[in-house]
Amino acid sequence: MKLTFIGADHEVTGSRHLLETSDTRLLIDCGMEQGSNTYENADMPVPFSEIDYILLTHAHIDHAGMIPYAYAQGFRGTVLATDASMDLDGIMLLDSANIQEQDAEWESRKAKRAGKPEVEPLYTVEDAKKALQNFCAIPYGRIEELSDTVSIRFIDAGHLLGSASIEIWLKEDGVERKLVFSGDIGNKGKPLIRDPQYISEADYVIMESTYGDRHHEKGVDHIAELADIIQRTLDRGGNVVIPAFAVGRTQEMLYFIRHIKDKELVKGHDGFPVYVDSPLAIEATEIFRENLTECFDEETRKLVLSGINPIGFPGLRLSVTADESKAINYNEEPKVIISASGMCDAGRIRHHLKHNLWKPSCSVVFAGYQAEGTLGRMLQDGKKEVKILGEDIHVEASIENMGGMSSHADQAGLLEWVGAYKEAPRKVFLVHGDDGAMEELSGLIKEKYGFDVACPYSGSAFDLAAGEFTYVAEPVFRKKETAISRRNDKVRNELSDALDELKKLCHRYEDFSNKDIKKLTADIRAVIEKHGTED
Question: Which stretch of 21-30, 152-161, 295-304 has the lowest confidence by average pLDDT?
Answer without folding.
Answer: 295-304
